Amino acid sequence: MKKILMFALGALLLSPAVADLFSEQDLNTARELRERALARDGGFDVVADLTTRIGPRMAGTEADARAVAWAESLLNETGFDRVWLQPVTFPTWHRKLERAVVTAPVEFDMVTLALGFSPATPQGGIEAEVVMFDTLADLEAADRSQVEGRIVFIRNRMEAARDGSGYGPAVQARSIGARVAAQKGGSALMIRSIGTSRNRFAHTGTQRFDADTRALPAVAISNPDADRLERLIDMGEPVRALVEVDAEFVEAYTSHNVIAEITGAKYPEQIVALGAHLDSWDVGTGALDDGAGIAIITEAGRLILDLDRRPDRSIHIIYFAAEEIGLWGGRVWAEENADNFHNIQVGAESDFGAGPIYEIAARVSDEAWPVIEAIQNELAPLGIALGGRRAMGGPDFIPSAPFGMAAVDLRQDGTTYFDYHHTENDTLDKIDPEELAQNAAAYAVFAWLAAQSPVSFGSGERLLADEAARNSE
Amino acid sequence: MKKILMFALGALLLSPAVADLFSEQDLNTARELRERALARDGGFDVVADLTTRIGPRMAGTEADARAVAWAESLLNETGFDRVWLQPVTFPTWHRKLERAVVTAPVEFDMVTLALGFSPATPQGGIEAEVVMFDTLADLEAADRSQVEGRIVFIRNRMEAARDGSGYGPAVQARSIGARVAAQKGGSALMIRSIGTSRNRFAHTGTQRFDADTRALPAVAISNPDADRLERLIDMGEPVRALVEVDAEFVEAYTSHNVIAEITGAKYPEQIVALGAHLDSWDVGTGALDDGAGIAIITEAGRLILDLDRRPDRSIHIIYFAAEEIGLWGGRVWAEENADNFHNIQVGAESDFGAGPIYEIAARVSDEAWPVIEAIQNELAPLGIALGGRRAMGGPDFIPSAPFGMAAVDLRQDGTTYFDYHHTENDTLDKIDPEELAQNAAAYAVFAWLAAQSPVSFGSGERLLADEAARNSE
After folding, report:
1. Of B220, B249, B278, which residue is a domain's last?
2. What is the ipTM of this complex?
3. Pairing state of beta strands A385-386 and B313-320?
4. Which residues does chain A have within 8 Å of residue B47's beta carbon, measured at their own beta carbons?
């Protein structure tokens, strides 16, 4: 925590104009929340219990239902003012089997995972020559004759970065690789795992949400296996492989968003929405993705519940359903609030592991921006700087963006996040309780002050108008 | 390599008495070997080829035979003066299936590997309550009533250390845990993986070489799975698990030590023996254990072969067979040399990964110790300090110790070695070619000077007599 305390000095330089936005009492409460949060473990007990008792909880599985029951029970026992379920119906997919084997010129098994929504191969798999491309763009540029009848291997490697910016470019091979390979007559897609681990784990994840993309069996192989395959191909002899996938599609499963409320004392209809997603991939125990987020927002809620007063606005703790396979919980939440966004003060989701938060960015109206600056002043002792005015609020709030929802990003250091994300290795030991506490402190302070803000953050027409005006300047 | 060059100053302080042990020409050759080695990649091509083309090569498998053919071909093509095979016959064991599942109060699969020589369970496995012990000693102290009919779980955790000293104490649970559990009526043994990785890999390895130890089905679970099991047990409800193993015993398989010789110009019958083992466990590709050793000693041999002169004594590059499952290649080599140890100048095996060497220790006669000091002077620019007078030469030379064989340990930094050792994650990407080159430089310098030594290192009666005299002082 030393590093965090070094920033405390900065907070003392708070300008009077900014400070005046909040009452002294509200600021004192924010500081009390921050200090109490840092003295605790950030909700580590919550993610420990979730990953121990429930473990992986892929949307649409029996464990999904157990997780929802666990969540409802936890939130009720915690003493929120109100807890309810919001039904979410979605198509899903269950992995049964996957194999990727090099069959010539030597034979070896590779560590592999089918990509989400991969169709099954014929039983026994598809065996063909492998054609390797450096990137998706190279596959896109290739002649059909290079691809037809072959297993396409895309070897591009994701780069680690604090803000996770290596993911976007690299993940394209996963998102639409199968569609492109199918268009050129390829027989299966095999990609280097999207992730930064050098350990022998494959990385799963969805493909883009259209049926075309799901036309071809698609698997990811672990980085060390991709290295070996590359070396073998570089030796010059033709390399053949076998890909086998078996999987089951489920067209309509109903799970639930689980929502808990701290009812606002003055404006109960106005909502500060803190989100995380309850579902996980079916490998690992979903500790970083997104058990950590569940812990952080729950702990923030508990800290505020423990105060001897209620916030002015309501605070919602939302465990979203089925994020991993298509943001389904976020879509339902946005639709349910379609006529209510003027009452959504702000949305912020924690879904980037358990690394410390280094920056707050916000999409709010011009009028509300000084409030964000004032909030950042209270976050500065946690080592959190002021970011810019672009924010999405997290994946489950993407479907709310077209409604002009105000959004805050509490940006976490994700340098090692993609070492574990979507792999069998996403387990509790990867979470540092001290870093988790920093996150919970930030969410508690942010949620409290957003609820006490003298102004609306401008969700809806005002925000959209402000942005249009800024863009036309 | 900057760190290494900083040590060069130390070498300039070389005392004249020590320097005089070798001719100026021999010292110049040693320095030339060192510099040429550092300009190359330590034999990375060798371990890359071995791990790419052959991969895992468990003693007694089809891949073992392919590895022997690969080795014979490589050593012949390299231009050694003589290459031959030494038959090694041993009992072995092949893994077919292993499962470890917690069945109550919640159900989850754990990442697991059967321990070497585990017997099979009945089909469908053994399901029983789990009893947890902190250490093997606690199991040894337990009443039969605590253990009988239960699955024994030992949770002790290995500590990382530069010299690998955490392995010895921790591995006891693997070596004899099944025997102790069987004596108390336990139904299966489950241990926390012996290894320092927090990643989700199980760690296999042999149990002690007696039939009693192999009486009970025995598996290791990955560290994150062991953590989860511990947490579940600590929650207080009875925990039940299922352990299933299927495996095949093979009583007599014959593989081969593969030996290459650089024939000595003056004393061809006298041998500097450099060893590594060719076999690996059946998981991973045996890159660190012990493809790295194969690369290092092969590169050392190549560097010496490239000189325009032959060493005085012969140098043998020995790829030992079946080390992992009982030092079988080392046993045969010792027996074959039973009447010849007076001609074995020294033995040194590289079998601790690819970390840099930090120290030379030697078990040599009193007369030869100044030669070791002189050799260390030439190793100092590589960052290698002088260690003590206890050395074993590496696992495959343990069977030669009773014959009084002189042995040298070129001790490697093994801080991260047990993150990968005996797991699926022992792959080529874990090897740093620059560190490999430092190793090859050290082996080349050491082997060259040992071959040019003005005195015998004292293998046999003299060494045993010297040690007896020192011990009685």
Report:
1. B249
2. 0.92
3. unpaired
4. none
